[in-house]
Amino acid sequence: MLVESWGTIEFRDAWRRQRELVDAILHQDHPDTLVLCEHPSVITLGRATQQGSVLAQRELLAMRNIDVIEIDRGGEATVHNPGQLVGYPIFNLQRTKPDLHWFLRTVEQSIIDALASFGLESGRVQGLTGVWIDQQRKICAIGIHCSRWITSHGFALNVHNDLSLFSDIVPCGITDRGVTSLEREREHCPDMPEVQAAVVESFRINFR
């Protein structure tokens, strides 16, 4: 597994570069690649997004320089903004296990393991993809696209980002649970390079 760090990158640019990686894996036998990055503030809408999931008026969001982008991943509405670790595992599942359920659960486990390395216990909620604290507060959203068994899109782990933007949407279409971050849950929040290193290590272990 290769690891690429794209730093802070506009969402549309990252989406284009993901498609280029998918093409390279499909046609050039490029290695599976885990991309890590951050995005300027943006709202993305997955294929399952229900009408009314964006609560703020689009005009007001535009005045705040916040784009709303419809994309081809699964799931519903979510937020990306600085201080959130976004990961795009561009993997050919035919090299490991062609099973999307297994892939999603393994991504979840990788995040759970990374958080545990900082002393934060997290887990799953039955029927709801992602990683949760106390089954009530989502700390990591997950939404993927898969074509010809090659995955794209991925996870968004809240580290020390501003959570107020989540009030502009119905996060992942869920109304009875909240969102949280590593900073909110831990008195001493690790910095982003530490979190990146922990995530990479857990991905290497779980996807070996």
How does the major sheet shape up? 8 strands, mixed
CATH-level-2 architecture: 2-Layer Sandwich
The low-confidence parts are none
Main structural class: alpha/beta
CATH superfamily: Bira Bifunctional Protein, Domain 2
Radius of gyration: 16 Å
Into which percentage range does the β-strand content fall? 25-35%
According to CATH, the fold-level topology is BirA Bifunctional Protein, domain 2
For the secondary structure, the number of strands is: 11
Query: Gap between N and C termini, in Å?
Result: 8 Å
- Pattern of helices and strands: EHEEHEEEHEEEEEHH
Provide the number of structural domains.
1
Portion of residues within helices: 25-40%
Report the total helices.
Answer: 5
**In the CATH hierarchy, what is the class?**
Alpha Beta
Mean pLDDT: 94
Question: Given the C-alpha coordinates, what overall shape results?
Answer: globular
Outline:
The chain is an alpha/beta fold.
What does this structure look like?
The chain has 208 residues and is of the alpha/beta class. The chain has a single domain, classed as BirA Bifunctional Protein, domain 2, CATH 3.30.930.10. Helices cover 29% and strands 30% of the residues. The strands form two sheets. Strands 1, 2, 6, 7, 8, 9, 10 and 11 form an eight-stranded mixed beta sheet that branches. A three-stranded mixed beta sheet has the order 4-3-5. Helix 3 packs across helix 5. The N and C termini lie close together (8 Å). The mean pLDDT is 94.
